Structures
1.
Amino acid sequence: NISIALARRGKKVLQIGCDPKHDSTFTLTGFLIPTIIDTLQMKDYHYEDVWPEDVIYKGYSGVDCVEAGGPPAGAGCGGYVVGETVKLLKELNAFYEYDIILFDVLGDVACGGFAAPLNYADYCIIITDNGFDALFAANRIAASVREKSQTHPLRLAGLVGNRTSERDLID
C-alpha cells in the first residue's frame, strides 16, 4: 500500500522484497517474480551478464519490484542474499533511478547483510504494529540505524503503526 500510494503521488518507486519466501511483491505483480539469487545462479554469478530487466519487474501503479529471495532453510544465510542484492542493484545503478526504495526486510534479523540497505538510505521509516514481536523487530532495526548512523548520513524518521487501533506500545 505504501509503494502504491507513493507511486500515485508521482514518485518513482522500487520495492525490494528481502524475504526467503519471495512473496513481498506478489500483490504488486500478480505472480512470484524470479529472485535475484535465482537469477545470479542461472548466470553462474556473472554480475556483468545480469540486466535490469532480468530482476526488475513492473507492478501495479508502476511500482518496480525486485525479490532478493534466499537460501532454503538451514542451507545458507539470508543476510548474505540481501547483501548480494544490494551489490547487484548498485552495479545496475538502480539506486540512482528511483525517488523511493522500500526494503521489505525481516526486522528481527538485523545482521550486517539485512542491514546492508541502510548504507544507501537517507532515512529509515519502520512499519510496525502494536504487538510485542513487531516492536521487538522495530527496536532491532532502530539499533541498526543507530549503528549505521555513526558512519552514514542515516536517520530514523519514525514508526508507522500499521493495521492497529492501539498505539500504547508503539508510543
2.
Amino acid sequence: SLTDSPVILKILQNWVPRVSHYFDKEHYTYVGHQIVIQESIEHLGAVVWPGALALSQYLESNQEQFNLKDKKVLEIGAGTGLVSIVACILGAYVTATDLPEVLENLSYNISRNTQNMDIHKPEVRKLVWGEDLDEDFPVSTYHYDFLLATDVVYHHTALDTLLSTMVHFCKPGTVLLWANKFRFSTDYEFLEKLCNIFNTTILAEFPESNVKLIKATVREN
C-alpha cells in the first residue's frame, strides 16, 4: 500500500565544484568515490536528472536495507550511467541499458568511472522498451535482483511499453526501485497503473525536487 509514510529527504549537493571549464562534465561524490559524468546536450537521456541523484543518494545511505553486493542489477533508461556506476561501486553485477543513440556516452561514462576499481565489470546493452525483450532478455536466462529506473516517466509516448518492460523484468524476488520527478498528471497516472500491478510503497520523497522514490515488487498469489 502507499499508506506507509515515506521518509522525507533532501537531495544533497553531492557534486563538487568543477575544476574543468567544460560545460559538459559534472563531478559527483558517492560511496567515497569521485564520479565524473559527461553529459550530452543532444539527448534527453544524456543529462543527469534529479531522480538519478535521489536514487544514488538513497542507495548509498541505505546499504543495509538494499544490499547490492554481488546482486544482479538492471538499469533501464540508464542515461548518463550515474546510478549504474553507484550500483557498481556498491558491489553489484550491473547491466546498464538505454536506446542505441545514448549507448556511446553511457559506455564512456561507465568505463571511465569503473575501469580501475576492484569491482564486477559492468555491461552496457541496448534496450528499447517493449521491443525484443523475449529474444534479448529471455526470462529463462535473465533474472535480476534489482531493477532500477530514474526519471523514465515524463511527457513521452512510450509509457505503456515502459510498464510492460517493468513487468517483463520484475519476477518474484526482484525489487524495482523507481525515482522520478513528478511534474504532470501522466506521472501520477503511471504510478496508479504501477500500483494496480505491483505491491508498491513510496520509500522516500524529496519535496524540494518533487522527486518520489518508489519500491515495487510482484504480487505473489
3.
Amino acid sequence: APAGAAMRTEISTAAAFVIRLLRAAGGIGEEQLRCFRECLQEALREHYKHHWFPLVPSKGSGYRCIRINHKMDPLIGKAAGMIGLSHERLFQLLPSELTLWVDPFEVSYRIGEDGSICVLYESPQPGGKTTKPLESRTSCKEEWRIGRSSPSKNYNMMTVSS
C-alpha cells in the first residue's frame, strides 16, 4: 500500500483532534471547519510523504511533530489561511503550547510544555510486534523535547525580564 493509504488513520486522527479544539473554542462554522480539516490532511500527507517509516515508527518523529509553541505550526497556519483565519485568531482558539506527535500506529499529544502525553490513537503494529515499551517511547519524546525546549525557556526569560 502506498504510504498515503497507510497514514490515513493517523492523519485523520490528528486533523480531527485539531478540529475538536477549534470547534470547542467556538465561532467557526462547520463548513469552514470541514474545509480546514481537508486542507490540513492534505498538507500533512504532503509533508509526511517521504518521512513515514512503519518499520521504525519513531524515525522522523520530530519532523512529523505538529507544534504550537508561541509560534504557529506552519501546516496548521497554512490550513487556517485557506479559510481566512489569521495566526492571531488561531492563537486565541488553540492552546498556546500544543505538541501533536503523528507516528505510524500512534498519535499522541501534549498540551503545555510539562503536560502529560495523552494517546489519541494506538494500533498494534503488523507482524504481531507489540508496541514499544512505554519507557523507550517516553525517553524518545522527552529527548526530542529537551532538544527543542531551550528556545521556549529563553522566550519565557525574555518576557519576565522585559
4.
Amino acid sequence: DETEFRNFIVWLEDQKIRHYKIEDRGNLRNIHSDDWPKSFEKYMKDVNCPFKVQERQETVDWLLGLAVRLEYGDNADKYKDSTPDGAKNTDNTAKNAEPLINLDVNNPDFKAGVMALANLLQIQRHDDYLVMLKAIRILVQERLTQDAIAKASQSKEGLPVALEKHILGFDTGDAVLNEAAQILRLLHIEELRELQTKINEAIVAVQAIIADPKTDHRLGKVGR
C-alpha cells in the first residue's frame, strides 16, 4: 500500500533515524504530494542508501537496519545485556524438558534409588553410579519397552530342514549320532550368522561415532 509505505518512511525518519532537522522534513511528511517520490529519492541519497527507490523491499530492510543501529547507539547501556524473548523461552523449555539436568549424583537418595533398580534388574554393581544408571537405561530400552516386549513375545516359526540334504563330512558309525551331529552343526552355523550380524552392527556403531571418511560407510568412501 503506497500510503502505508510513505507513512512508514516518515515514521522512521521522525522517530528513529532523524537525519533531517524537524523543519527540513516537510516535503517528506507531505505524503499526498505528487512530488513525494522525488523527495523520497533525495532522502535516500542523503542517508547514503545503496539501493534505488524502485527496490522497495531492499530499501525498507536497509532503513530498518539503520534505524536499529541508531536506536542501539543512543541506548547502548539499555540493550547490551538484553536477551531475546525467544531465547528465554527456549532456555526454559530446555530446562523443563530435562528434569534430571540438575541432578546431584552424590545425593544418598539418588545412590539408593540406582542401587535398588540395579538389584531389581539384576545388574552388576559398579563404583560409579552413573555407569550403573546407563546400564539400567540400556536394559530398559532393549528389554522393557513396549516395542521390545512385543518383539520378544512374537513366536518364531522355523522352516523344516531336511537333514539328509546336509553332508556331515564324517561318519560316526551310528545313524543316530550322525543325525545329532548334523543338528549341532546347523545350530552352530546359525550362531555364527548371529555373531556376524552383531559384529557388523558393532562396526556400524563405531563408524557412526568416529565418522572417519576413510571407514564411514555412509560417506561412500573406503580406504581413500
